[in-house]
Amino acid sequence: MSNLCMLQKFYREFFQLLASYAIPNVPQCKRPAGDDSDKPVTCTQMRPAQSITSAAKLRDEKIRQYKEKQDLEKRIFSPGALDAVGVDEEVQRENSLSLVRYWAFVGVSEVDLLCDEINLLASRESAAGVTETPSPEPPRPPLLISREAVRSTVFGAGYPSLPTMTLDQFYDFQVKKGMFPAPPANASSVVKAYPGEVQRIDPSEELAA
């Protein structure tokens, strides 16, 4: 926004210089009376009230300015128009005035675009300043606990992971991986003496016997 306001200010100074030099046949960028020069001018301030008659007049004026701008562009940017040597002073003066008039037409169109963009940014800033009230959250459904879920929690294992192998299978698996040492082949650390009883015997005692 600050850059746009600065550009608008520069164009105002340009048109003020054109008015001070009283260059003929130059389009003027009209400003409302009593307007502050440091204040950005929006489109509603720069343009008259739009009606059918004013819109038709504005259209005809735009067409006339466009045709005149095209004629000036052909005259100025033709080869050797401005840098010709030995040209009469009156021709040089007319070429210089044509160049000033051309950039005046460009400035009028640029000021209109600047006003449109400033007006758009101002409307966005005003819309962003309005805080929207948050919409209420939708009611959540009630939490239902089924009888099967409670029964599986009470009478089940109590955790989702169940064992997939026995301790002997786990030990053999670790021995195959090399994590645990292999048990001696001729040693029996557990011998069943009686049904339902387990007696532990030291292998060194068997060797001594």
Automatic annotation (TrEMBL):
GO terms for cellular component: cytosol. GO terms for biological process: regulation of dephosphorylation; regulation of signal transduction. InterPro entries: TAP42/TAP46-like_sf (IPR038511), TAP46-like (IPR007304). It comes from the Eukaryota. GO terms for molecular function: protein phosphatase 2A binding. This is Uncharacterized protein. The lineage of its organism: Eukaryota, Metazoa, Spiralia, Lophotrochozoa, Platyhelminthes.
